[in-house]
Prior knowledge:
Layout: E1 2-7, E2 16-23, E3 26-33, H1 38-47, E4 50-53, H2 61-71, H3 83-91, H4 94-101, H5 114-130, E5 143-145, H6 148-154, H7 168-181, E6 185-186, H8 191-196, H9 198-214, H10 226-232
Parallel strand pairs: 1-4, 3-6, 4-5
Antiparallel strand pairs: 1-2, 2-3
Amino acid sequence: MITAGGDLATQPAKTGLAVIEWRPDEARLTRLQLDVTDRDIVGAALTAQKVGIDCPLGWPDDFIAFITAHAGGRVELPTAESGDELRRRLAYRQTDRVVRQAGYSPLSVAADRIGLTAIRVAIILEDLAAAGAPVDRSGAGVVAEVYPAASLGRWGLAHRQYKRESNRAAREALVAAVREQVPWLDLGGHGPLCEDSDDALDAVVAALTARAAALGRCDSPPEHDTERARREGWILLPNGPLSTLVLDDSDGGSR
């Protein structure tokens, strides 16, 4: 099996891409790079069973309905809804609310700069679909929406204050913790880049989360939220230890 991970930004220079090749009792990071183009991501996704992308895959249903009504000049608001309640409902997707309840803080794709990155990923998803890849924003297709910091937290690893150049020491400690927890993962000489760049490190975590998603070891949207997740996207959080991502027996889905 091959999984990929993309830490997306508006510009290629701040975008990371990781590719991990999985075998029954080991895994190897075969590719890790920065300065990643849309074509790079699409190409990696087409060779992988699952690609984890750290970016919202859609916008809140209520936000779309609101701006559509606003464009037509016919906005109707519930009289009992306060300004703060309205803004929260429009700003966050259902998956964002679920992840917040789990103790993490996803950004608002409707009211934060990450919305610019989401425009980029929307084009990438279209390119993947045009190439024949099964794209489902709920995570059922080749693409899984991931949240690296939350994945690290779920795996019992440090997940705060490891970003930016000033936190290099924290990244070094985090890479060391990953090596200790999963000695079967060969970083293939890319460890220093993970320590240098949080974009590269997040791409690796995204590829690891993609493996969890491919094995069915992530929290999928509940049945009543599935259709909404196919429009808004759904953050897949791992629900098992990092150590369970490598298999002791034959890896039946390898490619």
